[in-house]
Specification:
Blueprint: H1 2-22, E1 27-37, E2 44-50, E3 53-58, E4 65-70, E5 76-81, E6 88-94, E7 97-102, E8 107-112, E9 118-123, E10 130-133, E11 138-141, E12 146-151, E13 156-162, E14 164-165, E15 168-169, E16 173-179, E17 182-187, E18 192-196, E19 203-208, H2 210-215, E20 226-232, E21 237-242, E22 247-255
Parallel strand pairs: 1-19
Antiparallel strand pairs: 1-22, 2-3, 3-4, 4-5, 6-7, 7-8, 8-9, 10-11, 11-12, 12-13, 14-15, 16-17, 17-18, 18-19, 20-21, 21-22
Amino acid sequence: MLQRLSRLTVLIAALCFAAAASAAIPTYRVEVVRVYPHDPHAFTEGLFYLNGYLYESTGLTGHSQIRKVDLTTGRVLMSRDLAPAYFGEGIVNWRGRLIQLTWQSQVGFIYDLASFRQIGEFHYPGEGWALTRDAHEIIMSDGTPELRFLEPATLRETHRVTVTADGAPVKNVNELEWVKGALLANIWLTSKIARIDPASGRVVAWIDLSNLVAQSGAGDDEDAVANGIAYDAAHDRLFVTGKLWPKLFEVRVVKRP
């Protein structure tokens, strides 16, 4: 009898743990607040908002650019082409500099934010996917479950955090944005954004963008996936777009009904 009770107790505990684990990560959806035009030829790799403008990096070898974009009209106000050998990736601003990764070349570039004049470069092992920042560090994704934390002055890596969901590593962590003390990350080839605790790497929420994919106007191109998150902290506005999307959305994150 005691043995049966012991087995029953273990079974109940296991079921409770499984139920708790499956319910541990809530999923939210987004409501569209406003729609803005976006260059349908932009293979968006990096995006951030600063002082009324969007800054965007685009990929594809031979077509990569950094851009300053008018939010309302989508018009490119200033741009700089990368050398044809480079596939442009994520960007971030830090104290008057724009810092950019490349995909597989293991080199990044540093520009004057006001003029896009190149003022330096840096190197890193592995691939470069995305960049964002908090008040003290620059944070980098490389397509693996690991996030790299960089010292802003030297861009040297200080430590890493592994992104996990329900204890399992999350692959394809892509475009990043720092929002209210957490990291938002597009998960490449999905319509999901992960909200990540930067200290532990744990995914604390999923944001479902599937309704935006349907509204994006991007057609059936398999490369036209959600990628690009920007946040206007002063006005609490969140923007999202995708590769080759003709629209950029201002959205509100809400609970599922």
